[in-house]
Design brief:
single chain, about 160 residues, mainly alpha, Leucine-rich Repeat Variant, 9 helices, globular
Length: about 160
């Protein structure tokens, strides 16, 4: 591999994008898992995004661990990656985000709810619209509304 993780935070966008493309092409998750623990936030969130694009389930535990207590940018991308990996092993972590207390970002909750839809958990979200927990209720409604709109755009029933 000719690219370094530091290139993910390079000052020039072209270098950042080339580094991402090379890391995707190589397809090795070990350097990206290491990238989740780098000091530079951009390296961390870009590593998470690449792990999502690669879609390898063995990255799930590291993404879940990195998201816990993380800053918004990192958590958001780790949660997004869990949905992109498209493996049911991510469901417990995503449910925990959707059902978290009010300190959790609504954007992160929504991202987790969309990942649950991708993983086939539409029934959970339909049930969650009756939740007594307002934040869970709201994100379930938002995610289900998005799913209906997207289904309509694709010509399939919601």
């Amino acid at each position: 591999m000719t690219v370094s993780l530091a290139d993910l935070a390079h000052s020039h966008a072209q270098v950042r994008h080339q580094a991402m493309a090379e890391l995707i092409e190589v397809g090795q998750i070990a350097p990206l898992l290491a990238g989740l623990n780098e000091a530079h936030m951009e390296v961390i969130w870009r590593s998470a995004a690449i792990l999502g694009w690669l879609g390898k389930a063995e990255a799930i535990p590291a993404l879940v661990a990195r998201a816990q207590g993380a800053e918004y940018e990192i958590k958001y991308n780790c949660i997004w990656a869990l949905g992109q990996i498209n493996d049911r092993a991510a469901i417990p972590a995503l449910l925990a985000i959707v059902e978290a207390d009010e300190t959790e970002s609504p954007d992160v909750r929504y991202n987790a709810a969309l990942a649950l839809i991708r993983l086939g958990e539409m029934a959970y979200l339909k049930q969650a619209v009756d939740s007594d927990h307002e934040a869970t209720y709201r994100v379930a409604h938002a995610a289900l509304a998005t799913a209906r709109v997207l289904a309509g755009l694709n010509g399939s029933p919601a």
